Amino acid sequence: MTGVPIAPRPLTDLAARHGGVLRNGASGVVRRLVPIDRAAAGDLAPLLSLRYVPDAVGAIGRGAVLLANEELAARDEIANLPAWVHPHAAWTLAELLEVGDAPEDEPVIGEGCRIGPGAVILPRVTIGARVTIGAGAVIGAPGFGFALGRDGSMREIPQLGGVIIEDDVHIGPLCTIACGTLGPTIIRRGAKLDAQVHIGHNCDIGASSIIAAQSGIAGSVTVGRGVMMGGQVGVADHLRIGDGARIAAKSGVIGDIAAGATVAGYPAVERHRWLRGLAELYRIASNRAPTSARAPESLTPPVPSARPTTVPGTWRGATIPPPPSVPPGVRPEAIIRRSEPPSEGEA
Amino acid sequence: MTGVPIAPRPLTDLAARHGGVLRNGASGVVRRLVPIDRAAAGDLAPLLSLRYVPDAVGAIGRGAVLLANEELAARDEIANLPAWVHPHAAWTLAELLEVGDAPEDEPVIGEGCRIGPGAVILPRVTIGARVTIGAGAVIGAPGFGFALGRDGSMREIPQLGGVIIEDDVHIGPLCTIACGTLGPTIIRRGAKLDAQVHIGHNCDIGASSIIAAQSGIAGSVTVGRGVMMGGQVGVADHLRIGDGARIAAKSGVIGDIAAGATVAGYPAVERHRWLRGLAELYRIASNRAPTSARAPESLTPPVPSARPTTVPGTWRGATIPPPPSVPPGVRPEAIIRRSEPPSEGEA
Amino acid sequence: MTGVPIAPRPLTDLAARHGGVLRNGASGVVRRLVPIDRAAAGDLAPLLSLRYVPDAVGAIGRGAVLLANEELAARDEIANLPAWVHPHAAWTLAELLEVGDAPEDEPVIGEGCRIGPGAVILPRVTIGARVTIGAGAVIGAPGFGFALGRDGSMREIPQLGGVIIEDDVHIGPLCTIACGTLGPTIIRRGAKLDAQVHIGHNCDIGASSIIAAQSGIAGSVTVGRGVMMGGQVGVADHLRIGDGARIAAKSGVIGDIAAGATVAGYPAVERHRWLRGLAELYRIASNRAPTSARAPESLTPPVPSARPTTVPGTWRGATIPPPPSVPPGVRPEAIIRRSEPPSEGEA
Q: According to the UniProt entry, which residue ranges have a biased composition of type Pro residues (chains A, B, C) (predicted)?
């Protein structure tokens, strides 16, 4: 269930008690706190991030009331909408949630699950069938959310939305899946997470997506179906990763990724662009190396440089982009190849 | 013990039951599943990665039978070898392992070990003498291995090879050491792993190597003796890191590293090359900064730029490469200096 | 209490027993091992890092005795100071600490704390009031410190300094906070650490600082007040991060950061410089792309490139630097925005 019930109260009462102003005729009785993309009549929908400004009109249309941060509320798209506008809306949200009525339901675990030793499954977590939870994983600990108050003080925002893990999901050892705020963090059917992966609060990880070890997804990210993510990837908050996207290991994603795209680097860009940029960089650096004779700029070789590298620490595909006959350098493919059994590796 | 025993069966039976074709006269009775670099008579050796194609001839020479993925089997080096060729060889391997006969032996722990509270030592793990296992570490959880089937469905590949940790190893708190597939993941004598390190399945970490916190090594990587790895390093799967190599913190290694090399960056290259590339990058960017008068390209200063930087957030060695009198910027050395006691740091 | 008491002994005895030489009239009775920045009469202060050479004169002035590594002791600033000089001073320190007298005090936990299930609080840890310790976090495990001996052998340096966590701190699930060596690792009042953060031994994390998930701080780092650090940041050992500094996600910090600075990249530099460097890189690469007509260098457009990108995987702010009207690309701000409740994210 998305949304946190509160004791029903007229908006005028709430504003009188918690501060802020009612603008453009905002009114009604509030019964629940609900994310803005699903809020309807009787719901109060926080608007605290630029990202969700486009959702505001829809929420109003469904009869919801906005609790908007003052700064955002000044924007043209919002300025004429009915809203409860508050200079510290997140702080107010925290106050409301603290008296919210989200029962601390015991976790529910489906049939055929394997829960590793030391794994911690907290209240408000629902786990489907045939799910693997690795040893020591922590599912449903509060998301990392703090509100700033008037005087710069910080206050924890209660995280009451829980976690839903669908059927056939694999969660590796020592992963952390944070509890959502108003609605659940979701890991969809068949998704596979390697060890030490972190999923922030309110994320929605698509079906059959694969995330390699030590990757971290910040809060409120939506990952599509069949996405493949290498190890140690980072994804900034509130982004959308399209279906079937491939994200090379160690990428830092700071913007939306289109469906089917293959990206690499930090900030993550289309993989070919990243490789070309690197190739240029090392080409230029080689040309200017003070100890080597330097070709005039107009005579520098095209990408990729054909000159043999003499560095002691070479790597497969030292010339960028790597020749087609070897595994390509960046290899989001690696997360597929990881699913292969080893043909060696023991000594 | 490397390899997983199965009920003895003629190869013809296996192919009839699991699909695929026998090519170039492949035959024999299969009694074990064994990694390709050690497989001999009576063994079935999976060939699922390009990386191990060179091992195939040796395995055949020792009397082993190959289970080769169709795609790989088309390669010239393989095309004429006897092999059981299957379009979904990994899936078949998973099927075989599910009825394999690898007893779930209780873990064995040597004398003088210190096992931290909350550490999880799973079956098929063997730990030598005087080993430290940090609190909450997870040793021997199944490696992250999934096979794709005909219809795109995924299936977990059983991980039955266990883990061997030799004498005098140090494993930090909250590390994950994954269980090998057919043979053990190995951490050799005297290796030291800091907190939150992840070691993938089938890795072989060399004696006295040091790996700083939050580094992750993907599956089937061989790390030599005395290797030093900074924090948050990532190493892609199936690579070989030579003896005594030094890998700067946060490097992303996507190719083999020669013995004794010092590398940095992502993709990791020889450290000097990386530094030179960065120096060029910032030099060019400075020259083009729209708010500053710009020198003609032919007059730009050589590397390193001698111009004072005016940025508010400087870092030691802001001019790249750093002058010889300060600790070099990237400092894989840091992981040595970490072993020094603090001379300060308390307030 | 900073410092580890030992059985009182004249320095001459210690040198006779552990090796090394007394130089420039070093003498006195040693009663404690204390970090160099606070050592006074009766204290032995290890000098093992270049970073603390400036502290040596002060320590001598307060009446302390230095235990200096031979290599460092050769430096001009040190050469004339009284000191116990040893070729393997860290090894000697380890020997002394092994017979030190640091009682293994049970952890102390203040009022109103919430300790998550599976969290491990080890001896010598002191926790203030209203502190949250996430599930599975490990507080006070020995820091990662090894000394090299004469023959290349390694020895663990006892870590006896403990951990102090002040009031109102939040430690996320599966964090590791390492125990200090001679004095405590400190997390100051109101600091907030997200999940899977690693804090090395002897660090001092300033009040109200915020560190996002999966960041790692190496040993002996001092972080100021109100610092904001994105996710997956790495900070090398022995550095100082000034008050109010902002460090973008995934940055690799290898030098001191000035108060109030905003840095990004690896190595981390002032954020604008990093963005400008990236812009140049991709601009150059685009110009040289072999499949596109190429403008002469003298006609290349200024930064940022105004040409539309055609890559399939775009990211918000694909043109670098991002236009001012969208959240800037790197967004150390994200760690503030994380403290906002989600306005969406559930499907």
A: 320-330
Span B283-304, pLDDT tens digits: 887 776 544 333 333 322 222 2
Question: How close A131 gets to chain B, by Cα (Å)?
Answer: 12
DSSP designation for A292: S
Strands B269-270 and B262-264: antiparallel
Distances (CA, A) of B291 to A196, B311, C301: 44, 14, 15
Mean pLDDT lowest among A222-226, A302-306, B76-80, B161-165: A302-306
Please tell me the distance from the alpha carbon of residue A58 to that of residue A40, in angstroms, as a whole number. 9
> For residue A244, what is the nearest residue in chain C, using CA coordinates?
C313
Catalytic residue among A170, A201, A238, A272: A201
Give all domains of chain B, ordered by start, each with its CATH number: 4-98 (3.40.1390.10), 129-270 (2.160.10.10)
Q: Name the nearest CA neighbour of B33 among B84, B79, B105.
A: B84
Q: How far apart are the first and last CA of chain B?
A: 52
Q: Does residue A48 carry a pLDDT above 60?
A: yes
Cβ C342–A232 below 8 Å, yes or no?
A: no
Q: What is the mean pLDDT of residues C293-318?
A: 27
Instruction: Report in angstroms the alpha-carbon separations of C193 from B23, B250, B319, C203.
Output: 58, 20, 32, 14
Q: What's the rounded mean pLDDT across residues C146-169?
A: 92
Stretch B49-62: mean pLDDT: 92
Is B129 an interface residue toward A (CB < 8 Å)?
no
Contacts of A273 in chain C (CB under 8 A): 282, 285-286, 309, 311
Spatial strand order in the sheet of B125-127: B108-109, B125-127, B163-165, B185-187, B204-205, B222-223, B240-241
Residue-level pLDDT at A152: 80
- pLDDT, average across residues B37-47: 95
Task: Yes or no: say if A109 and A127 are a contact pair by the CB < 8 Å rule.
Answer: yes
Of C135, C322, A252, A39, the closest CA to residue B266 belongs to A252
Higher-scoring residue by pLDDT: C39, C149: C39
Strand partners, B205: B187, B223
What is the pLDDT, as a whole number, of residue C91?
A: 96
For residue A159, give the chain C residue with the closest CA: C341
CB distance C254–B330 less than 8 Å? Answer: yes
Decide if C88 is catalytic. no
Give the residue-averaged pLDDT of B125-143.
97
Which residue reads 């597939």 in tokens? B181
Structure tokens at C293: 């007509």
Nearest beta carbon to residue C315 from set A260, A269, A280: A269
pLDDT at position A284: 81
Contact by Cβ (8 Å): C307, C290: no
For C281, the closest chain A residue by CA position comes to A277
Beta bridge partners of residue C301, listed in sequence order: none
Sort out which chain B residues have CB atoms less than 8 A from C253's CB and list them.
Answer: 315
Query: Which positions in chain A touch B35 (Cβ < 8 Å)?
Result: 342-346
Largest Cα–Cα separation, chain C: 79
* Partner-chain residue, chosen from C231, C281, C315, that has the shortest CB–CB distance to A281: C281
Residue B317 has pLDDT above 60, yes or no: no
Residue carrying the six token digits 């804090």: C199
Tell me which residues of chain B, numbers 30 to 69, contact chain A at a CB-CB cutoff of 8 Å. Answer: 35-38, 45-52, 55
Q: Write out pLDDT tens, residues C109-133.
A: 999 999 999 999 999 999 999 999 9
Asked if the C-beta of A302 comes within 8 angstroms of chain B's C-beta atoms, the answer is no
Q: Report whether C6 contacts C100 (CB < 8 A).
A: yes
Q: Tell me, yes or no, if C145 comes closer than 8 A to chain B by beta carbon.
A: yes
- C-alpha atoms less than 13 angstroms from C-alpha of C279 in its C-beta half-sphere: 27
For residue A217, is pLDDT > 90? yes
Amino acid present at C196:
Q
**ipTM field:** 0.85
